[in-house]
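ARCHIVE CARD
Drawer: 12
Card no.: 0347
Subject: one protein chain, sequence and derived structure
Cross-reference: see card 0346
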Amino acid sequence: MVSSAPAVELCMLLYRTLENENIDALKQNHGNFDARMELSASAKSDLQWWVDNIQQSEKKISPPNPDIVITTNASKQGWGAVRDHHTTGGRWSPAEAEKHLNELELQAVFFASCSLCDNVRNKHIRILSDHTTTVCYINNMGGSISRACNIIVKIWQFALERCNFLSSAHLPGKQNMLADRESSMFNDQTERILHQDIFQKLSLLWGPFKIDLFASRLNKQVCTYVSRKPDPGATAVDAFSIIWDRKPFYAFPPFSPIHRCLQKITADKAEGVIIVPMWPTQTHYPGLMSMLIQWPRLLPRKENPLRLPHSQKSHPLWTKMQLMACLVSGIALRQKEFRKNQEKLCCSHGENLPGTSVAYISKKWTTFCVKGTLIHMTSVNNVLKFLTLLYESGLGHSSINTAHSALSSLNCGSTCLVGNHPLICLFMRGVYSSRPTQSHYTIVWDVKVVLDYFRQWKDNEELSLNELSLKTTTLVALASAQRVQSLHKLDLDCMTQENDRIAFKFDVLKQSRPSVKSPIMELCAYP
């Protein structure tokens, strides 16, 4: 076989397995050439090739000039490659990073071939590398010294399947700067992966997904994926260059093109899951909410949902934001069907929400959901967990009942609302039994102390504006027994003055009710 190398193009590639197994057998038999050896399936396959192709095999005396030139480089952090003006690269996985640099350099060649020459046919491809072992292994179609470098077989098989021929030449390191930069400079802000357990829950809930639109070979969640730049194994490059309507998609895009993603979903009438930050103040947020066809799911922050795929460490952004999974559709009928079954807002567009305890409880409820697990926002189980959290924090029945009332109109996913669910009603009865409502005003203090203090002050004409304001506010509070919010709403435009009294009319207070006359506060003259 070796003697036929000058006439058989693939001789060195197809006898290498036999040579390595022969060396291993001689070592096991202490150099006895008469001992028997058993051939592997790979070696038998190579022998069969020789039987079938030896008669028609040939080899060019001088290979033609290369049609395509690719430069490659590898470091202990990652790999890089350049073809013409196209560059690509990426990090190694934790297991790959442990390999010897010789193997990593050949792995970089394989990734470069898959990324930059997948659609190339019948061409001579020249690989330029600053690593001499790589050059030798490509030109000699392998070697017998470093068995770990037998990935060269995959490199040549990939080329031969496309009728391509490979050759390699050495490139000085100082001339390999572009590939070297791709193998050592990375943007970890965009390389992120959702925790596998969370993705599996999403798949069971809304999947299975057919394609991952924003991924790489390290952070892909679906076997079929689209990468940002040329990537080994990617179905396509640049998600915005393909049509999204054919398959249910999973998308975890960078944050800057979220608005562009929503436009693409609408244009292609696509449907799938998109992972985005919960940023209500962003311009894309109203459009995102209008495209929902299921309630969004908040991703659990305490379980560290974001990881770096090359190290499995926590992503630097996971503590700074709340992520949510949204099932969206670009089909208007699907959007309208979902919105039709939702509760209506209790105030007009643009109207400020009242600064009451209900608004405060709503904020606490949202905060609780953010810190929880992967949940539907209004599940009975999590309402009970939320109320239990308030109970364990020391609140009494009155405060917990306020939270219960604020959530009572929400649909808990069953046949009744949160306020009427038997388990929640039973919980509230238990809270009342253990912590019954008590009067807020259990202590009486003597106002004479305050009045005696004011008597020590100068006359009103000599007081500063600040002192006069404090004195007036305190005397009005004592004389009217009004709440702080009522004092805050005192306005001269709403004041009427008579001979023996001053009256203030309020618009809306915390205690205001529909069809009830607005309250009036009167301050009568001192007799």
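Annotation on reverse: The chain has five domains: 2-53, 68-182, 193-340, 357-434, 448-524. The chain is about 35% helix and 15% strand.
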